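Quiz preparation item.
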């Protein structure tokens, strides 16, 4: 069963940091990169903080298209302050495209799973973790798994 917008928003409310710095971003990205290498996942990983890319990894077999997907998904998170997957679920529930609902260019934004907001309690969204290379629900799940690991939840 596909997760709902509300269940994905609840997950974002649960997975929040007390602080997030460049070292935390590095640990988050490195955990994903090492998992990709161990499991042979053909993924690209990006971690940003306040719009700056702090970590980037591209496994063998990935292409520049993966980077493009990440950029579009990350742009969606910064614009809407929710995961790209949550926004995609919202649009699917309303049976409308992002272009039609928000007048956004599909070449600039993506409403597919794989970018998750990094939220600091009391501050809000301070960054993103993004994965591209698998099915959208799997990209999203990897981001969530990595954040859970760092938060030890």
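Solution:
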């Amino acid at each position: 069963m596909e997760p709902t917008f509300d269940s994905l928003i609840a997950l974002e409310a649960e997975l929040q940091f007390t602080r997030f710095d460049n070292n935390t971003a590095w640990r988050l990205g490195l955990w994903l990169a090492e998992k990709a290498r161990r499991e042979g996942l053909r993924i690209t990983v990006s971690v940003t903080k306040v719009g700056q890319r702090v970590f980037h990894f591209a496994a063998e077999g990935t292409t520049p298209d993966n980077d493009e997907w990440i950029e579009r998904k990350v742009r969606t998170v910064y614009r809407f302050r929710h995961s790209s997957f949550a926004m995609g679920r919202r649009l699917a529930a309303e049976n409308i495209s992002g272009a039609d609902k928000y007048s956004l260019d599909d070449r600039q934004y993506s409403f597919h799973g794989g970018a998750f907001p990094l939220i600091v309690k009391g501050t809000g969204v301070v960054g993103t973790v993004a994965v591209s290379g698998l099915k959208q629900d799997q990209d999203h799940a990897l981001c969530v798994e990595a954040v859970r690991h760092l938060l030890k939840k």
